[in-house]
Write a structure and sequence with these properties.
Largest interface: A-B, 34 and 32 residues
CATH architecture of the largest domain in chain A: 3-Layer(aba) Sandwich
Number of domains of chain A: 3
Oligomer: homodimer
Strand order of the largest sheet of chain A: 2-1-3-4-5-11
CATH topology of the largest domain in chain A: Rossmann fold
Helix content of chain A: 40-55%
Distance between the termini of chain A: 37 Å
CATH class of the largest domain in chain A: Alpha Beta
Structural class of chain A: alpha/beta
Largest sheet of chain A: 6 strands, parallel
Radius of gyration of chain A: 26 Å
Number of helices of chain A: 15
Order of helices and strands of chain A: HHHHHHEHEHEHEEHEHEHEHEHEHEE
Strand content of chain A: 15-25%
CATH superfamily of the largest domain in chain A: Response regulator
Shape of chain A: elongated
Amino acid sequence: MCGNGKNCIFGNPKIIDTFVPLYIRAAVARFIMHEGNKVTINDVAKAAGVSKGTVDRVLHDRGEVSAKSKEKILKVIAELGYRPNFYASILASKKNYLISCIIPEFNDGEFWELTEKGIDQGKEYSGRFGISIEPVMYDQYDLESFQRACAKVLASEPSGVVIAPMFRNETLKFVKELSDRNVPYVYIDSKLEDDGYLAYYGMPMYQSGYLCADILTDGHPVRKVHIIRIARDKRGLSDPTVTRRTGLIDYISEHYPDCVIENTFIDPKDKAARYGKLDELFRNDPDPWKYIVMCNSRVHFVADYLRDRNIRTCRVIGFDVLEKNLSALRDGYVQALIAQHSDRQAAAAITALTDYLILHEGPAKKDNYTQMDILNRYNCDYYI
Amino acid sequence: MCGNGKNCIFGNPKIIDTFVPLYIRAAVARFIMHEGNKVTINDVAKAAGVSKGTVDRVLHDRGEVSAKSKEKILKVIAELGYRPNFYASILASKKNYLISCIIPEFNDGEFWELTEKGIDQGKEYSGRFGISIEPVMYDQYDLESFQRACAKVLASEPSGVVIAPMFRNETLKFVKELSDRNVPYVYIDSKLEDDGYLAYYGMPMYQSGYLCADILTDGHPVRKVHIIRIARDKRGLSDPTVTRRTGLIDYISEHYPDCVIENTFIDPKDKAARYGKLDELFRNDPDPWKYIVMCNSRVHFVADYLRDRNIRTCRVIGFDVLEKNLSALRDGYVQALIAQHSDRQAAAAITALTDYLILHEGPAKKDNYTQMDILNRYNCDYYI
DNA sequence: GTGAAAGCGCTAACAT
DNA sequence: ATGTTAGCGCTTTCAC
């Protein structure tokens, strides 16, 4: 269970840091992996005057070693700049690592589909190192479903967890348990305020709202901005787009202090009601040019309405590369999409965990904000 | 030398395709890599009634096997869905693979620096599989320097080559030689019309020009577009941006048939002359608003001029994320940059070659066009 | 607490 | 042309 063990020398890079002078480490790191003269576990054993078995025991911190031997071995390891050969390790090991990925379930063409693709990409990588991946889905509108997912994951005793959190409190409880068990976890999409995660991969939400507002207004004399929002039937959910909306609103009030912001709530499941709301919006806004934005991935709802009503006097900005959004973009009902590679986020999360488990190396950066991609009809076909 | 050998079963996926029924392959592919019951070389040997040694010989096509045995072994391999365990393979093998990367040399902050970073990323990956990387630079304005680079690479007998071609004819000669030697090669940045490459990673150049024009004009009533170009002292070079310029010009003539396109050539090495040219441009164009574009990565030349002359009545679009370009973007002297992840291109090229050498798997797609990223002051800080 | 030894699946040198 | 065998560096019993 190295990699999780606090005292495992690989799990605790500081130990190596303490012993190995930097100039040696740089050199060692370069060639230890494969070139010629590597230091092997045998060399260490000899130099420390013990057997491989004992070295292996301290390497993986599985006890049954005298303090004296341990100290000696650690010292020799540092002096020689020994690094384990993970081919040999994997070959010889019967271990079966498992990484569980907890994400919302989805229908075809929805946002989380891309994340799942990323999980598959990550699986390909982790698979090479003998690590298997188990996706565990939950209903993002159902707290109990999330709890069940967490319980299931805990029961499977994973070596690492990737999680896209939607329920704040429950997630905090869950990751606390992971921490207690020394199971590393990585946030994707959004993160919480705890500090125990190995890494985070997601979009800078506030900035994405700010950027969105800039693209929406685009220097035009905008007097009113319509934010279309999803009417959520359930409460208690952390709204994943508040921060984005804040960025949007901040930009508007900074650059267009007189501009009015109007919220319209639509029902994703009731087309008639949705159209009613949008009709109302168009009836009440006298301005011939409308500026419309959606802060989530469902801008295709607006596009469908505009297509049906044959309205082309809007500037519409949305988020994410759903197929429906792309076709709205191509047809000119949406002027721009702000996209993110949520597949890469998921893949990066798995890669980070894999490297942590196999190489005992944490990611270079803990918080990784992915780039915000601006898509229009001319570059969207080369996306992904 | 498997992976290069034409008859090596891994080098020739069709052989496997022929023998293994699809439904078996799917199942096998899933678990062969690591889960429990793998088929080993021993199983194959037993089933074929020969020894491991013989199986290994046909696996790597190193001859000295009777046609009969070979046939039998191939059949058994297919039936059993045997796939080699590459940990064991690497562990036991003394082979030293080398991938050479031929790219233009550069100064700090120039375009190719990012490519070099990508090579380092790729190296990290390939390094794990015991493959070393050697970058070989050439002067992109000096044919002989390129020839020397090619000769050097050939002399080092690489197992694979990554190349960013600038000299068409010489490159064609070079890759012909590689093909003859069965050395796989991958193009990055741009590619040639030969067909022997394993993969290509680069930007869709024509489309990038088209996109650029769209961003430049942005719905404004544009009457003249200034293309700033680099005065090249040497001839015989294939201009890497012609195609991009064509895309740009096509867009303009399609959307702004009356718009005039004016070329201005500037000298990258002579600031005074450069400023003279630009002064002239500004003197001769009566329009207070100017539309300026550069099709290469040097738009910072224009930005510097505008900064010095304190001119803010231009819409300027350029390419690529040099530090100088980014600061021009932040300061508002450039309105947008069209960027590409040339680091990822290089890394992907190395990954593709690595997988080809180790796993004997070609890339999913041969031609890989990377996305075109639109950068403005609000999203550029999250790029890379 | 520690050491010895038997593999993991493959490669390659050496016999035959 | 084919079989045998000694490793590659590490993990994991099983003795002591």
